[in-house]
Amino acid sequence: MGFRTLLLLVGGLLLSSPSFAQETIYNVPSGDVLDKGKVYGEFDFAYLSDARAGTYTPRVVVGIGHQIEFGMNLNGMTTPGPSQEILTPTIKWRAYNRNDWSFLVGDNLYIPVQNTSYVAGNYVYAQVTKTFESKTRLTIGAYDSTSHVFASGNKGGGQFAVEQPLNQRVTLAADWFTGHHTAGYLTPGAIVKLTSKATLYAGYEIGNSNVSRGNHLLLLELGWNFN
User: Fold this and answer.
1) What does the pLDDT look like over 159-195, one tens digit per residue?
2) Which single residue of 21, 79, 111, 145 could bond 150 by disulfide (Cβ 3.0 to 4.6 Å)?
3) Domain-wise residue ranges, the chain
4) Torsion angle of alpha carbons 142, 144, 148, 152, nearest 10°?
5) CA atoms of 87 and 215, how far apart (whole Å)
6) Helix (H/G/I), strand (E/B), else coil: 74
7) What pTM was computed for the model?
8) Count H helices, E strands: the chain?
9) For residue 4, what are the contacts with CB-CB under 8 A and spacing of at least 6?
10) 3-225 has which fold?
């Protein structure tokens, strides 16, 4: 197998990695939950330059009250090559939020609707966030995913994040999923509040394995608060 073929295969695995329909930092769910009646939309674009391939993920999130939000996104739209589109309804619940500590649990259901290779899959997590006087926010959590979501078999591990506001508009951030699978990336970058409604998330995903073989990519996300 030639290097270019291997690179394209790595890229294909990377570009099929799940996106998360709740409010996220980049990939790890954030400690935020939308208020009741609030609606948030986002469009994600990831680009693997070596393979000249990209993936596109639209999503929408709605706050329903009681520290709960529901989301829906459409994963798996890629160019070039065949797409495997996956509907992903999600729920996130902030069960505790007091004295700068929060505890959250969530669940994502993956339902392939095009070029299907499995019936359904699931990703579930629990995490704790802590905000310090410096406004630094740390996230520490654990996840479990069923077969075909992150890999061909069941996967579990840790999910972590750090956010550091520089001012009212710019926040430095990074998140990380442990493990060698399609979600296993460290993503550092910056979050920029463009307007009162628009936010740009710019990061660079670095794979937990095969980095020298092309397992890294640019990630851009544009979020919009509708109300």
Assistant:
1) 999 999 999 999 999 999 999 999 999 999 999 999 9
2) 145
3) 3-225
4) 90
5) 25
6) strand
7) 0.88
8) 1, 13
9) none
10) Porin (2.40.160)
